[in-house]
Amino acid sequence: MKGSSELNEVNEVHEVKDESGGVAAFFDLDGTLVSLPSLEQRFFRTLRYRREIRLKNYFFWLEEAVRLIPRGITAILNANKMYLRGVQIIDERGEGDGSVSSWHKGGHQAEGQASAPLRRNPRLPVPTFFAQAIETVVWHVKLGHEIVLISGTLAPLARSAALALETKLAARGMTATIRVLATRLEEKDGKWTGRVLGEAMFGEAKARAAMRLALEMRLDLEGCYAYGDSLKDRWLMEAVGRPAAVNPSNDLASFARTRGWPVMNWEEKQMQRRDAEDPEKSQREKSSAE
């Protein structure tokens, strides 16, 4: 028979689980969970290096930019994906047409396999998460919170990041399905058309997407969390009861302080951790910078 102290512990556990019901943690991706430049910028550089982007795509991009001028520079930069017109679709593993490469990320061939031609499709950028970002996600998972990546980047890039994050959690013996709300593109004959399906996931669109998900999953937005690094994330952060500015731009930091929101610097923690692991290397880099 359980003693009174044991029963109290059980009740406390149930109370935590009850309190965490219907709660989600919404994470911006670029600059919040992973360092800049953004995953899409890295992907663009890869496509350009491999000459996957046709010259006329830049003209399509300019044409779309002119159309978006009334919506402002932010829309031009975040909602214009015409540079991807005619580029072969890839999935979250960085593969297209269901092809599987025998080459690892380091460029080495898998043992026991015959030589393979250079893969046609570029691998997706592999995200490196801030150490404190991982710890924060782990904390939410332990409490039973839903984890949602909400990003203006391309959906395959965001899904790739979600898979990488799930792998990080699995390495700690934790199982979690990470949901993704990101910018989706129209597809035709196995290629992107460059047109955005629905809304590009930035600014107020993030708040609307979070509200739709809250209705679908019966989330209590007042009990939900949101983490972002840019002033464009403020609408999402205002939609929940527990927002936090992470690695914030100056304007978001000022905005957060006026609202009384926590301001966190996960980049700094990452640097401090690296300094502790390799102080000599850190000192050399600081000396060269000076």
Share in helix = 40-55%
What is the ordering of alpha helices and beta strands? HEHHHHEHEEHEHEHEHH
The rounded distance between the terminal residues' Cα atoms is 67 Å
Mean pLDDT: 81
Overall radius of gyration: 21 Å
Low-confidence stretches: 1-18, 97-120, 281-290
Shape: globular
Number of strands: 7
For the largest beta-sheet, the strand count, sense and barrel status come to:
7 strands, mixed
> What structural class do the secondary elements suggest?
alpha/beta
Strand order of the largest sheet: 4-3-2-1-5-6-7
The total count of helices amounts to 11
Index terms:
alpha/beta, 7-stranded mixed sheet, about 290 residues, 7 strands
How do the helices and strands line up, and which of them pair or pack?
Blueprint (H helix, E strand, L loop, with lengths): L3 H17 L3 E4 L11 H11 L5 H14 L4 H7 L51 H12 L3 E9 H17 L7 E10 L2 E7 L6 H14 L7 E4 L5 H6 L2 E5 L3 H10 L3 E2 L1 H12 L1 H11 L1
Parallel strand pairs: 1-2, 1-5, 2-3, 5-6, 6-7
Antiparallel strand pairs: 3-4
Could you please describe the fold and organization of this structure?
A seven-stranded mixed sheet has the order 4-3-2-1-5-6-7. It has helices at residues 4-20, 39-49, 55-68, 73-79, 131-142, 155-171, 204-217, 234-239, 250-259, 266-277, 279-289; strands spanning 24-27, 146-154, 179-188, 191-197, 225-228, 242-246, 263-264. Helix 9 links the parallel strand 6 and strand 7. Helix 3 runs antiparallel to helix 4 and helix 10 packs across helix 11 (279-289). The chain starts with a helix and ends with a helix. The radius of gyration is 21 Å and the shape is globular. The chain has 290 residues and is of the alpha/beta class.
